[in-house]
Amino acid sequence: MPNVGHSSVKGYLFGEGYYWAINRSLDASIGAEYMSQRGWAQHGEFRARPNSVSYLDMTYFGVMDRGPAKTKVSQGGEDVRLNG
Length: 84
Known about the structure:
By secondary structure, the protein is mainly beta. The protein has one domain (3-66). It is 0% helix and 71% strand. It has no helices and six strands. It has strands at 3-7, 11-23, 26-35, 39-51, 54-65, 77-83. A hairpin with a 3-residue loop joins strand 3 (26-35) and strand 4 (39-51).
């Protein structure tokens, strides 16, 4: 589902995501959001359940931030997690 909104800190928000059911034991999702006063955010997730006793989960979240309008100090970054 696309998302649209407004925030006093982030400005106008426009986002979209995509989910892919690869097969019975694998799926993935990706998405992005544009914030008119701050920049871009991206996210993704990959999950695998090859059998009943094993799994693999990988998530990513990143922000390319321009910073608040007054200070322009970037507060962006990335977070990657891998669990198995």
